[in-house]
Design brief:
The protein has 73 residues and is of the alpha+beta class. The protein contains 2 helices and 3 strands. The protein has one domain: Double Stranded RNA Binding Domain (2-Layer Sandwich), CATH 3.30.160. The radius of gyration is 14 Å and the shape is flat.
Length: 73
C-alpha cells in the first residue's frame, strides 16, 4: 500500500463546501470542511483504484497555492 500526500482546495458554495484535488482532478462536497475533505479522500481513493497510473504521473508535480490582489468594482 502506497500513501501519497495530495492537496485539497476547499471553497464554499452556498451552504456546502466543495473540495478538489488538483493533482488527480477529483472533487467532492460536504456540509463542513472536514466532511468535504473526507468525501474527497474517499472519491480520490476510489478513482485511484480504477486509474492507479494517474498518481504515478503526478509524483513530480506539486501544486502551488498563492494569492493575488484584483481591483473590484
Amino acid at each position: 500500500m502506497n500513501i501519497a500526500t495530495l492537496a485539497a482546495i476547499v471553497h464554499k458554495e452556498g451552504d456546502i463546501y466543495v473540495a478538489a484535488c488538483p493533482e488527480i482532478g477529483t472533487a467532492s462536497q460536504g456540509s463542513s470542511i472536514e466532511e468535504a475533505i473526507a468525501n474527497l479522500k474517499e472519491a480520490t481513493e476510489l478513482y485511484l483504484e480504477e486509474f492507479p497510473e494517474k498518481l504515478t504521473c503526478s509524483k513530480d508535480f506539486r501544486p502551488v497555492l498563492t494569492t493575488f490582489e484584483a481591483i473590484c468594482a
